[in-house]
């Protein structure tokens, strides 16, 4: 599963570095949406988490497809790929909501800091699923 050849690891680090930039952009979009919803509209932090996550996921998919995984050739339609991304994202969303609830309610963390913490953890899930399951590279 993890070959030791140098080219494989270089490609993995290139993709991960690209995904950090793409994911970072998506995360900033998600955090801004979250903050706007929580602090300006007074929507509950859990609903804000869900809405912001979906917006960030869509943005991340579009940017990731255009930059990080642009050279990947698949035999599926763009709709099939999007469905896989959003199904993996649904699991990420569940993780995100559980983390948000635990960090805010049990650890008393400030909401935006809990959101940032949860995003970093779910970020790793998203990269692994895209690399090894969806794009299989």
From TrEMBL:
<feature type="transmembrane region" description="Helical">
    <location>
        <begin position="110"/>
        <end position="129"/>
    </location>
</feature>
<dbReference type="Pfam" id="PF04138">
    <property type="entry name" value="GtrA_DPMS_TM"/>
</dbReference>
<protein>
    <submittedName>
        <fullName>GtrA family protein</fullName>
    </submittedName>
</protein>
<keyword id="KW-0812">Transmembrane</keyword>
<feature type="transmembrane region" description="Helical">
    <location>
        <begin position="16"/>
        <end position="39"/>
    </location>
</feature>
<keyword id="KW-0472">Membrane</keyword>
<keyword id="KW-1133">Transmembrane helix</keyword>
<dbReference type="InterPro" id="IPR051401">
    <property type="entry name" value="GtrA_CellWall_Glycosyl"/>
</dbReference>
<feature type="transmembrane region" description="Helical">
    <location>
        <begin position="85"/>
        <end position="104"/>
    </location>
</feature>
<comment type="similarity">
    <text>Belongs to the GtrA family.</text>
</comment>
<dbReference type="InterPro" id="IPR007267">
    <property type="entry name" value="GtrA_DPMS_TM"/>
</dbReference>
<feature type="transmembrane region" description="Helical">
    <location>
        <begin position="45"/>
        <end position="64"/>
    </location>
</feature>
<feature type="domain" description="GtrA/DPMS transmembrane">
    <location>
        <begin position="19"/>
        <end position="134"/>
    </location>
</feature>
């Amino acid at each position: 599963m993890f070959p030791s050849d140098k080219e494989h690891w270089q490609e993995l680090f290139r993709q991960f570095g690209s995904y950090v930039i793409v994911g970072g952009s998506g995360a900033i979009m998600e955090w801004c949406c979250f903050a706007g919803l929580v602090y300006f509209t007074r929507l509950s932090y859990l609903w804000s988490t869900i809405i912001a996550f979906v917006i960030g996921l869509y943005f991340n998919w579009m940017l990731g497809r255009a930059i990080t995984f642009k050279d990947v050739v698949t035999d599926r339609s763009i709709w099939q790929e999007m469905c896989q991304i959003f199904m993996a994202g649904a699991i990420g969303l569940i993780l995100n909501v559980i983390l948000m609830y635990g960090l805010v309610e049990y650890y008393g963390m400030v909401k935006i800091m809990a959101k940032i913490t949860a995003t970093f953890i779910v970020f790793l899930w998203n990269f692994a699923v895209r690399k090894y399951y969806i794009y299989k590279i």
